[in-house]
Predict the 3D structure of the following.
Amino acid sequence: MDAKLAALRSHSPEVASWIDRIPLQKWTQAYDGGSRFGHMTTNLAECMDSILKRARSLLICALIKATFEKTATWFVERGVKADSMLRAGHQYPEEINAIIRKNQQAGMCQVRRWYSRENNEFQVQEMFSPHGHRLPMSFIVKLNDWWCDCGHFQARRLSYHHVIVVCSFSHIDLTPYIHPVKASTTSTKHIKYSFILLGIKNIGPYTPDQISFQT
């Protein structure tokens, strides 16, 4: 990537200067620290293609109107769902609870060694491979560093079966090892903002089957 940036600077210094003002961590896979909550940096940009799927045939104004209305509807629906989860006393959305339950059921492994009580470092041995295509393996789990050799813990900021087994073995609360961004309260904050009504008139008509959104 550095070589390509150097070539760009020699070809177009103005463009390179504009790019340099954007932190590399925000747009490059080489510097984003790996996965971010299950999404690679490249996928976060490419996902917009699916959001505007089948909308290319619309007129510009109709495209803007459809995008605005669908996005506003999505925020309202997600907001109602998040509020309902909070009123029912759910700390995490159902999607997160389902992942945790799945990982609890898949936790067929045992703690071999507890290396450090202060740093909460453990060695976990699988009883059998959860994927079935490899031999059982041993992994190092470092709770204080949000680290597991399998990579899932630090990538998704969510307790996977190795971490769940460790917390159960050592009687440690699992909640601190689920990132706050996964909580229902965080979801509510992200979608609490209201949309104002568009005052654009004479926008070409469109029908729901002309544009599809993936939520």
